[in-house]
């Protein structure tokens, strides 16, 4: 298991799919030149997030649709993996708020649908995913995907940790005034589960929303290793494999009393 270098792309949402693909291609070129193995975009980056239910439905595509094929071409061209947010088609129902990982060879090792919808806008635009997040293996790392509000629920990250996740990647569109998520909650999630956490947020304004940036990479001891400010930024972060293994010598997970607390998840 070698170190993994991520690019967390803190950026405004685009005005169109064409703009999204053009900007993603340029960001991947820059990230690869700086040594990144994988780039993470914000939540719903490919189409915009605060765009209304009608437009979300019109832009929604299958996981293997034209947007996925275009992103796969970018991944292959730059020889790097990409995790991006998009609206996934859900026939007969509102689309899913989804994030997909595409490998450098163009394959799709993971597609995840946001399970915890935040506020009236999320619920008006999307259907909640009904499948718990799963890990996938890439570059010797076990990775999990969550989307924005998901990471604020302890069981979402704990479920991935119990599957052996080494790192959780989170495309997000967190907004003002919720800075406490990045400053307080995310370090706790990483520490209590002895894993790395990478959070790629949007910035700027979209409709009535003002995104709060503060994208960050957090080590398994809860230390914030890299953090952006609130403006546009391509944050390069190296996940330290040796530090991860060392932290796990002191993990609380082996001592958890699942026999006492697991039933609470069913109530």
General shape:
globular
Order of helices and strands: EHEHHEEEHEEHEHEEEEEEHH
State the strand order across the main sheet.
Answer: 5-4-3-2-1-14
- The number of helical segments is 8
Terminal residue distance: 39 Å
Write down the overall mean pLDDT: 95
Helical residue percent? 25-40%
Structure classification: alpha/beta
Tell me how many strands there are.
14
Strand content: 25-35%
Please outline the major beta sheet: 6 strands, mixed
Low-confidence segments: none
Written account of the structure:
With 267 residues, the protein is α/β, with parallel strands linked by helices. It is 30% helix and 27% strand. It has 8 helices and 14 strands. The protein has helices at residues 17-33, 53-59, 66-78, 119-125, 154-162, 180-193, 241-248, 258-261, and strands at residues 4-10, 38-40, 81-88, 96-102, 110-113, 135-138, 141-145, 167-172, 196-201, 203-206, 209-212, 216-218, 224-227, 233-239. The protein has a 6-stranded mixed sheet. A hairpin with a 7-residue loop joins strand 4 (96-102) and strand 5 (110-113). The longest helix is centred in the first third of the chain and has 17 residues, at 17-33. The radius of gyration is 17 Å and the shape is globular. The chain starts with a strand and ends in a 6-residue tail after the last helix.
